[in-house]
C-alpha cells in the first residue's frame, strides 16, 4: 500500500507544499507515495489582491497544475483532525461526512479575519479576506449609484490601519469615483488604534503613507476604535458617529481553528509552533505551513508573518521536508532571511522597503511598477507543465514578493 501525504488547504502554503513534495518524490523516482490535497476548491484565491477592483478575476485554477505533477485533489471542507488515528474528517462536495487517512500531514488551512462579537452590528461590515466577501463588497460599491445621493453613500470607513487596511483605503477613492462619477466628492476614513498614521508599519514607511493619504484625501482617526456598526455607519469608542454606507473590517486575523485540534503550543494568533523543518513541535507526523505556522525565518529572532511572501517559501519548505521525512532523506531547514514590503498606495503609487526595519528603497511610480509585477506575475502559480512546475518548487529559491 502506498504511503500517504495529506495536505489540507490549497492556498499559497498548500499549493507550494504539494508541488515541493512532488518535486522531491520525482527526484528520487519514488512512486510508492501519494500526495493528496484536500480543499474546498482546486483554485488559488490570490488573496493579496482582494483589495483591488474586478476581484472576481483574482483566482487561478489548480486542477491542471496538480494533474501535471501527479497530485491528487479532493474537494471538501476539513472539520476534524484525529491525531492518534492519523486521519482528517471532512465534508465532501455533497455535504457527506467522511475522512482521509494519512502517514504525514501538512496543515495549510490559512487564516481568517475574525469579527469580534464584542462589537455590536459587526456583521454589517464587509471584508476583503475571502474572494466571496471581497466580491460582495465590489457589488455593493458598484450599486451605490442607485442609492439617493448623500454624504453617507459617498463615505467608506475602514476599520484597521495595518497593511490590508491601508491598501484597501488608498484604492477606495478611485473605486468610489468609478461607481459614482469622476467628480463625486468621496470620503474614505481609516479608524486605527495606533497613535500615528501608519504606526503599525513603522517609522520609515509612515511618511510615504502620510503623503499618499493627503494626496488621495484619505483621512485617519488615530487612537480610535470602532465600538459598533450598523447599516448606516459606525460609532467609535469615544462616542463619535460616522455616517457611512460602506464599512470594511480589516483587523483581527487568526489562524485556522483546526490548529486547536493538534496537541501543541500555539502563539497569540493560533499558529502552531514548528521547528526549523516546519514539523509541529511534539508531533512526529504533522507539519504546519503558511498562516498556521509560527516559524523562525532566521537566527536573529524574526518569525514569519501571515503574508503571501512568507507562505510561498514556507510551502516549498514544508512540502520538501514532509516528503523527506517519509523517505528518510535529509530535510532542508526553512530559512527566509530577506524580508521586504511593497505597500500599494492607490493612485499615489506604492512604497517598497527592505529589511525588518523597513528601509525605504522605492516610492511612487517606481514602487508601483514593482507592486504590479508582484501582484500580476510573481505570486501566481507556475505553468501547468510538469518539469517547469517542479523546478519552481525548489525550497532554495529565494522569494521576494
UniProtKB/TrEMBL annotation:
This is NAD(P)/FAD-dependent oxidoreductase. Belongs to the NADH dehydrogenase family. The keyword Transmembrane does not apply. SUPFAM superfamilies: FAD/NAD(P)-binding domain. Residues 4-313 form the FAD/NAD(P)-binding domain. Keywords: FAD, Flavoprotein, NAD, Oxidoreductase.
Amino acid at each position: 500500500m502506498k504511503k500517504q501525504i495529506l495536505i489540507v488547504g490549497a492556498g499559497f502554503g498548500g499549493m507550494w507544499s504539494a508541488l515541493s513534495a512532488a518535486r522531491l518524490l520525482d527526484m528520487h523516482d519514488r512512486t510508492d507515495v501519494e500526495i493528496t490535497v484536500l480543499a474546498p476548491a482546486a483554485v488559488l484565491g490570490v488573496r493579496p489582491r482582494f483589495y483591488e477592483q474586478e476581484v472576481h478575476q483574482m483566482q487561478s485554477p489548480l486542477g491542471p497544475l496538480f494533474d501535471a505533477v501527479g497530485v491528487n485533489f479532493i474537494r471538501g471542507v476539513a472539520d476534524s483532525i484525529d491525531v492518534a488515528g492519523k486521519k482528517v474528517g471532512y465534508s465532501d462536495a455533497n455535504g457527506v461526512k467522511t475522512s482521509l487517512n494519512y502517514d504525514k500531514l501538512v496543515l495549510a488551512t490559512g487564516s481568517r479575519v475574525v469579527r469580534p462579537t464584542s462589537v455590536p452590528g459587526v456583521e454589517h461590515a464587509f471584508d476583503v479576506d475571502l474572494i466571496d466577501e471581497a466580491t460582495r463588497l465590489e457589488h455593493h460599491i458598484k450599486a451605490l449609484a442607485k442609492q439617493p445621493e448623500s454624504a453617507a453613500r459617498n463615505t467608506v470607513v475602514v476599520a484597521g490601519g495595518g497593511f490590508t487596511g491601508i491598501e484597501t483605503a488608498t484604492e477606495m477613492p478611485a473605486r468610489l469615483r468609478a461607481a459614482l462619477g469622476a467628480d463625486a466628492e468621496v470620503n474614505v476614513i481609516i479608524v486605527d488604534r495606533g497613535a500615528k498614521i501608519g504606526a503599525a508599519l513603522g517609522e520609515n514607511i509612515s511618511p510615504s503613507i502620510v503623503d499618499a493619504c493627503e494626496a488621495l484625501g484619505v483621512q485617519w482617526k488615530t487612537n480610535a476604535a470602532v465600538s459598533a456598526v450598523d447599516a448606516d455607519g459606525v460609532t467609535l469608542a469615544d462616542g463619535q458617529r460616522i455616517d457611512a454606507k460602506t464599512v470594511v473590517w480589516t483587523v483581527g486575523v487568526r489562524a485556522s481553528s483546526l490548529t486547536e485540534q493538534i496537541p501543541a503550543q500555539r502563539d497569540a494568533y493560533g499558529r502552531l509552533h514548528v521547528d526549523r523543518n516546519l514539523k509541529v513541535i511534539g508531533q512526529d507526523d504533522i507539519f504546519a505551513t503558511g498562516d498556521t505556522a509560527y516559524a523562525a525565518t532566521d537566527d536573529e529572532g524574526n518569525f514569519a508573518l501571515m503574508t503571501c511572501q512568507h507562505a510561498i517559501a514556507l510551502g516549498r519548505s514544508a512540502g520538501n521536508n514532509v516528503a523527506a521525512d517519509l523517505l528518510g532523506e535529509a530535510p532542508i531547514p526553512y530559512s527566509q532571511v530577506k524580508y521586504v514590503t511593497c505597500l500599494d498606495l492607490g493612485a499615489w503609487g506604492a512604497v517598497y522597503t527592505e529589511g525588518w526595519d523597513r528601509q525605504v528603497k522605492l516610492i511612487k511610480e517606481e514602487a508601483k511598477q514593482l507592486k504590479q509585477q508582484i501582484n500580476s506575475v510573481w505570486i501566481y502559480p507556475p505553468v501547468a507543465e510538469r518539469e517547469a512546475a517542479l523546478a519552481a518548487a525548489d525550497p532554495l529559491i529565494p522569494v521576494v514578493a
